[in-house]
Amino acid sequence: MKNCKKFLLKNKQAALGIFVAGILTTGIVGATYSSIYPTTDLKSTDVEGNYGALGYGRGNGQEKSQGQRTGRNSQTSQGGNDQGLNKENCLMDGCLLVDDADYPVGELSIETIGYLEAAIADERKALATYEAVMDEFGNVKPFINIARAEEQHISMLKGLFDKYGVEIPADTTVIGSLPNTLAEVCALGVQAEIDNDQLYQDMIGDIEEEDIKAIFTNLAAASLNMHLPAFERCAN
Predict the structure, then answer these.
(1) Is residue 142 domain-shared with residue 198, that is, in the same domain?
(2) 8-state DSSP, 142
(3) How many folded domains does the chain comprise?
(4) Residues 165 and 88 in one domain
(5) Could you tell me the CA-to-CA distances from 28 to 16, 33, 34 in Å, in that order?
(6) What pLDDT, in 10s, does the model give residues 92-107?
(7) Domain coverage including residue 21
(8) Phi then psi dihedrals of residue 167, to 5 deg
(9) How many other β-carbons are positioned within 10 Å of the β-carbon of residue 216?
């Protein structure tokens, strides 16, 4: 230690040079680091606009307008994946994007409740029939694919029951005996999908609720445009 002090006293200029060089080196390194890794103010407008408060994500980075959060059939101010969602038309995962989707969202007429019950009964009958076919003939196409689709249809309808505070009816499905050949069973599926589409068409015009009408329209389109052609190919 004494030798170090003697060295510094005898070499003041050298010590001063080392001190100045250290300051310059620190400044250069700091400036270089800042240019490569710039700091971000998480409270800035740009960050909040894209990622929400404190940088946490909003999904598509776009704020919903006040009308979109509370009104019927309104749109987001800037578009986006949640465009047009509100408590009247949200369903299942879509409701996670709607702030005021408290259930039940409304009260249904006796007639509309009857329509929901008829729809879920028909979808359950189709699922039970197609599952019986697979028990008999194995996991054959198109039955295995359409059976999974029918499960999704039933889930969508159950979502509507929950949304409007209506009790989901018990499944009392009973199916009869099946034909002996796969081609005959496919012909049975052809008629079932035609009847399913007609059932929805008969109900859609009397429904006021846009979300129920939209679900019924989509399910009818699936039967007519996807399931029916698959069964027709199988039957022929």
Answers:
(1) yes
(2) T
(3) 3
(4) no
(5) 19, 9, 10
(6) 777 777 777 778 888 9
(7) 2-36
(8) -65, 130
(9) 23
